[in-house]
Amino acid sequence: MSDEPFRAPTPGRVEWPTVFLIATWAGTVAVVVVLHRSMPWYVSVPSLAVLTGFQFSLQHEVIHGHPTPWRWLNVVPVGLPLALWCPFREFRISHLRHHASELTVPGVDPESFYVTAETWDRSGPIGRGMLRLNRTLAGRLLIGPWIVVATSLSRAAGAWRDREARSTWALHVTLAVGTVWLVVGVAGLPAWEYVVGIVWGGTAFPLLRSFVEHRDTAGTGTPSAVVRSNALFSLLFLNNNLHHTHHARPGSAWYALPRLHRELGSDELARAGAGWYRGYGEIARRYLVRPFGEPVHPSECGAGLMRTGFAARAR
Fold it and tell me: Which own/partner pairs from 235-240 qualify as long-range (CB within 8 Å, at least 24 positions apart)?
């Protein structure tokens, strides 16, 4: 699909703040992997989780046409699949479709965490329990990464019917095997640290950012929320916690979002729509074990939930 509406508005310019972040990230990953033996696991594992999560933030920036006018040059330094499960091309196509879709609608928005009433009905008691658990912050961080991995693998299983998809996954598998060989085989990082720190923790980190990112508002306000977090989280998420602003100006570089946020009055728009939060601490207090809405999309939630004994609670 064409990504012209979602690309950087000033092609031809090299965005040096992003280049600096990419270089710093790559160097830090190399240092942690090479020197992991001199670190206790409780330092190396969280460090790898944060660095892998930050890679997803950098990949998101690249998807939107940053930091140079040359797409191939943008992809090369951040395209190595550290977390293993996500081909960059698939991420790019899915995310651009997300921007072009009606947000939150399952089956239309590829990044929606809502499900249809039909999916709910056929899930069974265990499946419904998992869907409800995944609507809590604790569940999203604990089981959410494995749901994402399983979903990606199910796509891979169906990819072999399409030649272009086969090429994408063949390249991805080659890069993933090479990554594991370098990090585990050559550098000697224990396999359990790779799985827990990079695959699980690295995938959980962006799931924290996206937990309250979108909420169905039935067309009465913006479906994109705002989390006014501290400077560290804002940097690690490249200001995408200001999510309404990102959707309003998707081609803007991460460092331009705070200014645009003020100009657009995004705080007030988010308060009247999907939600405004003081930080991720507030989100944890409200939703650590309490569901952030029902799993079924509000437009479908009546009959499907009543048949299984649940009353729909729309936020």
Answer: 236/50, 236/53, 236/54, 236/57, 236/205, 237/57, 237/206, 237/209, 238/57, 238/58, 238/60, 238/61, 240/57, 240/60, 240/209
What phi and psi values does residue 208 have, to the nearest 5 degrees?
A: -65, -45
Q: Residue 264 domain-assigned?
A: no
Q: What is the pLDDT of residues 133-184, one digit of tens each?
A: 999 999 999 999 999 999 888 888 777 788 888 899 999 999 999 999 999 9
Distance CA 299, CA 173 (A): 38
pTM of the model: 0.92
Supply the range of the domain harboring residue 73. 4-216+276-307
In a domain, 83, yes or no: yes
Residue 174 lies in a domain: yes
- Identify whether 313 is part of a domain: no
The gap between the terminal CA atoms of the chain, to the nearest Å, is 33
